[in-house]
Amino acid sequence: MGSAKYEVEKFIGKNDFGQWRMKMRALLVQQGLVEALEREAKLEKSMANKDKKAILEKTHNVIISSLGDKV
């Protein structure tokens, strides 16, 4: 299985937020980070705290990097 790069246009407040949100979710699924959207309490109970923190930090970084500077 190949690895495809998927980019999401930055949300700048003028583009469609609903469409951007769906694309962000797809990107997080592709990167294996979608469980972070369920908040820390919903992450797997068997997962170590440092693993939970790493997933949450990666997800935060992906989302922040997909926002425009003036949002």
Give a description of the structure.
By secondary structure, the protein is mainly alpha-helical. 44% of the residues lie in helices and 0% in strands. The protein has helices at residues 17-30, 49-65. The radius of gyration is 13 Å and the shape is elongated. The mean pLDDT is 84.
Give a quick rundown of the structure.
The protein has helices at 17-30, 49-65.
Task: Report helical residue fraction.
Answer: 40-55%
Kindly state the number of beta strands.
0
Termini distance? 37 Å
User: What coarse outline follows from CA principal-axis ratios?
Assistant: elongated
User: What's the gyration radius in Å?
Assistant: 13 Å
SSE order, one letter for each helix or strand: HH
Low-confidence stretches: none
What summary fits the major beta sheet? none
Helices and strands in order:
Blueprint: H1 17-30, H2 49-65
For the structure shown, list the relevant keywords.
mainly alpha
